[in-house]
Amino acid sequence: MKAVLVFAIALLWSVNAKAAGETPSSVAEAFATALSAADQDAVKRYLSPDVLIYETGGQEASRAEYASHHLGADMAFIAKLKRSTLSRQEGVGGDLAWVATRTRLTGTYKDKPVDLYSTESLVLKRGPDGWRIIHVHWSSAPVEPLKSP
Hints:
The protein is an alpha+beta fold. The chain is built from 5 helices and 6 strands, in the order αααββααββββ. It has helices at 2-21, 24-36, 40-46, 63-68, 71-79; strands spanning 47-55, 58-60, 81-93, 96-109, 112-127, 130-142. Helix 2 runs antiparallel to helix 3 (40-46). The chain is globular, with a radius of gyration of 18 Å. The termini are far apart.
């Protein structure tokens, strides 16, 4: 019995230590990496069950709704592109944080060239499982070619 108790305490300590080592920026990067790798389980792990997602004027009001609607298409799209992080900023206040990331997405999707600037705003909340994303807002715009003077 004593060995079981020691194991349980060690397990709880390792889970809390992992959660304590996470930062909002590391969760944002892991979330983006999971999307690029088309790892649906990992993507869902970083999202709060009641996440609110805004994308191209639409809204999904839960992790389950996102998983059943746009998650598959988002993973298929991003998995085909090269993602280059241009900037990332974060702010933390208590158990809430925000992460704003600007990336450039390049490549080919469905036989069409893609060259986009993408912005991602995340709001995260710290809980017993570490930082989880409670709000996502994505937008993107084509990269305009440089114009000659």
